[in-house]
Amino acid sequence: MSRATRTWWKTAIGVALTALMLFPLYWMINVSFTQRPAIRRGDLFPRSFTLDNYAVVLHDQLPYLGTSLLIGFGTVLLTLLISAPAAYALSSLFVPGRRLFNFLLIVAQMVPAVVMALGFYTIYVQLGILDTIPGLIVADATIAIPFGVMLFATFMAGIPRELLQAAAVDGASSWATFRRIVLPISRNAAVTVALFAFLWAWSDFIFASTLNREGGRLRPITMGLYDYIGSQNQEWGPLMATAVVASIPTAILLVVAQRYVAAGVTAGAVKD
Amino acid sequence: MRTTPKVRRATGIVFATVVATSLAACGGGSAGSSSSGSASTAVTQIGFWDPYPQYDDSSDWAKYVQACAPSGATIKRTTAPNTDLINNLTTAVREDNAPDVVFLDNPAVPEASASGLLAPLDTVGIAAGDADANLAGPGTVDGKTYGVPIGANTLGLYYNEDILKKAGIDPSAITDWASLNAALEKVTKAGDKGITFAGVPGEEGTFQFLPWFWGAGANLKDIGSSQAVQAGQLVSDWVAKGYAPKSAITDNQSASWDQFLTGKYAFAENGSWFAKAAAAEKFPIKMMPIPSATGGAAPVPTGGEFGVVPVHKDNSAGHYAAAKHVIDCLLGSDKQITTDNMLGYFTANKTTRAQQIAAEPVYAPWTDAINGAQGRTTDLGTDYLTTSAALSKAEQAALNASGDQAKVAEAFKVAAQEAKG
Amino acid sequence: MSQTTASMPGATKEHAPERRPKASRPRLRRRHVTGLIFAAPLIVYLLLFYAYPLAVNVSMSLRRFTRATYVTGEAPFAGADIYKEVLASPQFWPTVEQTAIFVVVSLVFQYTIGLALAVFFYRNFPLSTVLRGLFLVPWLLPIIVSATTWQWMMDADNGILNRFLGLFGVDPIWWLNADNSLWAVIIANIWLGIPFNLVILYSGLQNISKDLYEAAELDGAGPWRRFWSITFPLLRPVTAITLLLGFVYTLKVVDIIWIMTTGTGKSQTLATWAYGMAFGKGTSAVIKYSQASVVGTILLVIALVMGLVYLAVQRREED
User: Fold this and answer.
1) CATH number, span C81-318
2) How many Cβ atoms from other residues are within 10 Å of residue B338's Cβ?
């Protein structure tokens, strides 16, 4: 089999696998174009077609989408700012009690979000930053940071010692080493951590509903969704339409970000 | 020497711990301290919580609420699902950060008042209203009134006229369980489906189970009785014979209504809040009272929220004055019809209700149901929640048992023990 | 001299880095300080937002709380009584067993499928970047939407899953009833966890030097052999962290189970049990804060044990 044929074969399988994985998404799109009475019929195609759901969503939900994007980016920034240096410290600077630290990070991730949200609520009320976007960004970053530190540390530990020693011999301070050598090599890890931080902030509901209850328009989309979940009446058509609309910008972001997970960033660095 | 880094590290940790604990202490301290003898200052931003997220800021309801703000103040409305409202209220009262008025689901009112979350109405200065006794019941705990019913809704049996006609069934002949089951059998043989209802775990499921439970003659004080088992067997058999969808164990009332809207089902047990929407559907939907086991209409539970006033430590006089203004404005006897028409509820007073129904003929079949509806917490008070949870578990087990009589009986026996413990 | 400079951290940093052949002691100290400063924000975070709520959680499990005493804070001390009650409750051991099945089966499949996909996407082919990005879409869908969609797809009467199985002659399965609900939520959870594994393992694969593969190919090793001798061993640190974090996260999973089945029947795990009791939801309408905190603490202990295992594995890697 020639090289070209093999790669197209792979594309075909890839598309099939992706289609399988995304079938629930297809179902959501299906329902988003369906009128309410037909939703539970389980039709494979939207036979009772309607655009009303999208009209409602575009009228209601855009401010929430904007807020979610803002919170997402803010969380990514804060997470990277705190976790990258900390991971460098853990993996390369031989901080005493490194094992204890690692252990604490693992423990931190075991705390259920609900328990943390209640703790945050008390602190935020005292500090008066309840129902603010920066407050929510700090809270969301707090979930992502231990993960970020662990992932960065794992990747940074894989940086060849020769590189770091070469820099030290050249007289570089820790900060310079970090900035000029470690960070660029950790690009893969940074993109991965950024992706996760964004996705976690994007899909967070518990922190938003505890810490940003009365934020009005300045609430993220996860809460905007709940406008369609009344106490005795839930509107699944607009709900699905909201989910689809919300997925589009983020899907584009994801595909773009994936390009930055490049191959063999460490390869070649040691040779040079 | 070698200890210096360790010492530095230890100091760092101690310092950070001190910072953290002092912050925590501050947090705990402030929540505990209350400003006693606070002078009453008018509240300019009035907090208002209701469980209607489907009415956003641009809706008629939101504007209607805003119009009830006293001069010089605005109302900040926040919505949350019913199941979350009481928990949000709990954390808010704990930090003395509660709103001024809350519309709380009626079965939660005894629990909220017993936990010290609500201020009695005479403290707030709201006069006892003219609500009917059966509807005002949940708001009174140990002789003190904590809330004003905003209105009421209840359950009935909707039916698809076309399907019944096709199967040759006369709706007025359905008066007891035997005739209902016969109708379900006929309808299924004719190729359609039987009945949808909400068997979802939790209060909503219990709400929907109560007409059958009470209709069998069972009492909430003894949920292990043979009548209770009879009710469980009824719904269990429906699933076994395919009269009811298997999704009943996860469907809530909205989902069960979605099933009915597909036009494939003959009957739907659902609430009066769908009455207007039902009249506008493509196929003709009518309503009949839910039959009891031996004949006649089954007792049905009252749904609907109460306007309650959360406890405030700081500036309580100011907050309570604001609350009184808003509640009188929204729920005063003269305003009840307007408010309830906006929400799709019936008024809490018989006379005004008669006026309301006269103006909206689609509500006429519901008159008797709402007049005879029973409060869920009236007998049991704060014990209702435990009983409700146990009953929900029993119903779930019965539905899962899919007709197995031994399992159904066992389920209710276990539930009775849980309700006591 | 080195000792005096070391005791003043600021002074040490401003000194020009001295070149010493055996610069062990002063270097170490400077590194310690720098390390601490790099890690300082993280330390503050951990103490403020993790240690404090954790302490509150443990304290709640030792005192008898009701909604009323939660508001006032004056709950009577109960010591280990609540722990005894929870451990003796008839629900406890079945729930532990269900949790174990949920976590282990989810992890095994999520990891294996994620790794297989990562290897599949390893060498670029047309559209591979786009497809890889699309694989993450399940993660950005709101959980209420995905979970409800799975619930509909698994509907016993007209769900698409049963219709698909019907094509192969399989009888309709009542996925969401009490007995089968555990498998239903496991399937949905595996679907949800694949993106996480795929992304991390793919990143890990990319960090393995291509030279190793070329050398092995020159030596005549086939793809299977290359995978087991090069890829898998070099992936071990990434595997370890993926499995550990996967374990911790799966242990905490509540949303997808709750939305699909409200944690009824066999789908009840320690996390959903604690959630129901903490918020008075589902068939646990009465709030049981103390019992919920007890189950929460038990969950923490289990996760802690796993964390210790991870550290032991990591230590062996380094030695």
Assistant:
1) 1.10.3720.10
2) 12
